[in-house]
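User: Quick one: structure for sequence A, then sequence B.

Assistant: Sequence A:
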Amino acid sequence: MEIVELEGYLTALIAWPVNVPTGAWLPPIWGGRGWRVPAKIAAPAQFEKFVALVSGFMRELDREFGRQPSRFETSVLHGLSNSARVAGLRAWAKGFMSGLTLGSQGLKWRNEIAGAAVRIIAANTSPSAPPGPQAIEKIASAVFALMSQRASRGPLGALEVSPASPAATR
């Protein structure tokens, strides 16, 4: 995943927590479906660094969302020029929808607020959506609406990975 798609993916995991085994959210990041770790991060030190970087990014996103007032200012989407914004919004949405569909909950609506928020995100990131200047703000508002529906508003705890080592999964 590129950074914009990764942000969308991690945002979904924060805003719409899914019930998946610890660390099962990692393989989609490197483009896998199982625990086969890519060779470039297969060494234990490389794998630990990779996990530390991804979980650190996830924690930073969670901190930003948890600030009062909640913010989405650190989003990588804010740094995109107008020409790159459309592609960035679509990549972010691809990651976000991947995160929403992870696990058994999938896209089952919790309530009308959550359903409306997901529809707003989809409407502002679809290929047919006009690239309006307010798209990022609409997406941020929808993310905050989803976050208000979370069962827990506390900060993320330890983001542990599966006890299987990367070497054991090759």
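Sequence B:
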Amino acid sequence: MKKGFSCVLFFILLVSTTSAQNDPWLADFLERWEQSKAYMLAVAEAMPEEKYGFKPTVEMMGFGEQLMHIALVIEWHAHSRFAGLETPFRQDAYKVDGMDKSSILKVMEKEFDNASQLIIDFEDARLSEKGNYGGFSRTRRQFLLLLADHVSHHRGQLLVYLRLNDIPPPNYVEFQ
């Protein structure tokens, strides 16, 4: 009896964690997302903690602020735009004040992982479903692409921050 129950439990877990794997596009995106996470964390790790407040000009975000901004948009965009849950934009929950480098890295990793889980659990049939954003109607697929573009946009800025501090950026992670 225990063996039969274990097999059924294993099958349920397998099916529930491979939903995104049924759609080749989602599987490809998830692979790219995981590579993006690895590269983002390597970039964040490269900057010494004492330089997390560095900003090239007064009006720009500091290094740590950029990271928390990325985490905020991952959280909001993945849940509200991609998953269609209409969650609030919780900017106050992603402030750098009082956070050290380790705490910021944990938030970054958590938001990347939460987005990965949303993608894994996502119903393939909903990929063509549309939602609104900034006056435009976009598919759930397009929302994921916008999310990836946002990460790349800010990561590119962070690479410049590293260079401005004479810190060589980590090698680019291919296929992301």
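Helices lie at 2-17, 24-46, 63-82, 101-121, 140-164. The chain has one domain: 20-164.

User: Thanks, that's what I needed.
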